[in-house]
DNA sequence: AATAAGGGCAACCGCCTGTTC
DNA sequence: GGAACAGGCGGTTGCCCTTAT
C-alpha cells in the first residue's frame, strides 16, 4: 500500500520549537482540542508537521505532565515493568501518572539502564535519587536547555485546569472540556496562558479523570462564539483559522 | 580559559495498528 | 475485503549543556 506522507514536507519547520509556536499550539489545542492532528497545524498557523505538533503537545505542552526528578518508587516501577513488559514504554508510562512514554524511555536509556546493569551485578547497588551530576537538578527547579524554559518540579498533587467560566468550554473532550494540568510546570505561564489573562482556572481534581481527555474525539461546542477567541488570544492576531469551515456550522455562533 | 568528552533530552523517522469508507 | 488515512509507538538522532582535562 502506498502511504501518503503524514504531511507535506515542503516549507515545514523542523527542530526545536519556539516559544511562539508553543503558544500557538497550546492556545489552539486548549481551545479546540486535537480534532485532527494532520489538519491542526494549518488552522493553528503553524508551519509544522501534524505529527510534530502531536508529539510536542503530548510530550511537552500537555498540562498534566510531571517533570523533573524521578522518585525511587517511579524508577523501581519503570525497572519492574520493563522486566515484565519489555520496551513497551507507553504501557510503562501509563503506570506513572504525569510521565510520558518519551520521557520514560529517555530516562531508561540515560540513567536506569546503567543502574539496572549495576544492580544486576552482585557487587554494586543502585544509586537511586542521584543523577549523574549528583545534585545538579536541585529539588524543585530545573533549568532546561532553552534559557526561556524553567520547569519546576513539585511534590504537590497535579492540578486540573479548565477554561475560564466566563468563556465557553473548550470543545475538546469528555469530562468534557476539562484539561488536566500540573503545577509542576510553569510552561503555561511562560506561554502567557495562565494567571493574568485568566484563560485557565486551576482547581484540584482527580488525575484519573483526565485520562480520556486525550483519547476522546473532539466535538465543537455549539455555544462557543468563535470570534471571542481573538479576545482571549490577542497574541495570535488572527493567525488561527476557524476549523470546521468545511463542516456543517449550524448552531455555531460565527 | 579553551577544548574534548559524556550525558540528557527534545524531536524526528518509519513502521504498525485501528478506523472509516 | 481492501484501500486510504490518522494516530500511536519505539528506535534513533542530534543539539546543547555540564564536567573533565
Automatic annotation (TrEMBL):
<dbReference type="InterPro" id="IPR017930">
    <property type="entry name" value="Myb_dom"/>
</dbReference>
<feature type="domain" description="Myb-like">
    <location>
        <begin position="62"/>
        <end position="112"/>
    </location>
</feature>
<keyword id="KW-0805">Transcription regulation</keyword>
<dbReference type="Pfam" id="PF00249">
    <property type="entry name" value="Myb_DNA-binding"/>
</dbReference>
<feature type="domain" description="HTH myb-type">
    <location>
        <begin position="9"/>
        <end position="61"/>
    </location>
</feature>
<keyword id="KW-0677">Repeat</keyword>
<keyword id="KW-0804">Transcription</keyword>
<dbReference type="GO" id="GO:0003677">
    <property type="term" value="F:DNA binding"/>
</dbReference>
<protein>
    <submittedName>
        <fullName>Myb-related protein Pp2</fullName>
    </submittedName>
</protein>
<keyword id="KW-0238">DNA-binding</keyword>
<feature type="domain" description="HTH myb-type">
    <location>
        <begin position="62"/>
        <end position="116"/>
    </location>
</feature>
<feature type="compositionally biased region" description="Low complexity">
    <location>
        <begin position="159"/>
        <end position="178"/>
    </location>
</feature>
<feature type="compositionally biased region" description="Basic residues">
    <location>
        <begin position="111"/>
        <end position="120"/>
    </location>
</feature>
<dbReference type="InterPro" id="IPR015495">
    <property type="entry name" value="Myb_TF_plants"/>
</dbReference>
<keyword id="KW-0539">Nucleus</keyword>
<dbReference type="InterPro" id="IPR001005">
    <property type="entry name" value="SANT/Myb"/>
</dbReference>
<feature type="compositionally biased region" description="Basic and acidic residues">
    <location>
        <begin position="128"/>
        <end position="141"/>
    </location>
</feature>
<dbReference type="GO" id="GO:0005634">
    <property type="term" value="C:nucleus"/>
</dbReference>
<feature type="region of interest" description="Disordered">
    <location>
        <begin position="111"/>
        <end position="184"/>
    </location>
</feature>
<dbReference type="InterPro" id="IPR009057">
    <property type="entry name" value="Homeodomain-like_sf"/>
</dbReference>
<feature type="domain" description="Myb-like">
    <location>
        <begin position="9"/>
        <end position="61"/>
    </location>
</feature>
Amino acid at each position: 500500500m502506498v502511504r501518503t506522507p503524514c504531511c507535506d514536507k515542503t516549507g515545514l519547520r523542523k527542530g526545536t520549537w519556539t516559544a511562539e509556536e508553543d503558544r500557538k499550539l497550546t492556545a489552539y489545542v486548549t481551545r479546540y482540542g486535537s480534532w485532527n492532528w494532520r489538519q491542526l497545524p494549518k488552522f493553528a498557523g503553524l508551519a509544522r508537521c501534524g505529527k510534530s505538533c502531536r508529539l510536542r503537545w503530548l510530550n511537552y505542552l500537555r498540562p498534566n505532565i510531571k517533570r523533573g526528578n524521578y522518585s525511587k518508587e517511579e524508577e523501581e516501577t519503570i525497572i519492574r515493568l520493563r522486566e515484565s513488559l519489555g520496551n513497551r514504554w507507553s504501557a510503562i508510562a501509563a503506570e506513572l501518572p504525569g510521565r510520558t512514554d518519551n520521557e520514560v524511555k529517555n530516562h531508561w536509556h540515560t540513567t536506569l539502564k546503567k543502574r539496572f546493569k549495576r544492580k544486576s551485578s552482585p557487587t554494586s547497588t543502585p544509586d537511586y535519587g542521584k543523577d549523574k551530576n549528583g545534585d545538579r537538578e536541585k529539588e524543585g527547579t530545573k533549568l532546561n536547555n532553552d534559557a526561556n524554559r524553567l520547569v519546576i518540579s513539585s511534590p504537590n498533587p497535579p492540578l486540573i485546569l479548565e477554561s475560564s467560566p466566563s468563556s465557553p468550554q473548550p470543545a475538546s473532550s469528555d469530562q468534557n472540556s476539562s484539561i488536566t494540568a500540573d503545577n509542576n510546570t510553569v510552561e503555561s505561564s511562560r506561554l502567557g496562558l495562565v494567571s493574568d489573562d485568566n484563560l485557565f482556572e486551576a482547581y484540584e481534581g482527580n488525575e484519573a479523570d483526565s485520562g480520556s481527555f486525550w483519547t476522546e474525539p473532539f466535538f465543537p461546542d455549539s455555544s462557543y462564539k468563535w470570534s471571542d477567541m481573538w479576545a482571549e488570544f490577542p497574541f495570535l492576531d488572527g493567525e488561527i483559522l476557524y476549523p470546521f469551515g468545511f463542516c456543517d456550522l449550524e448552531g455555531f455562533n460565527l
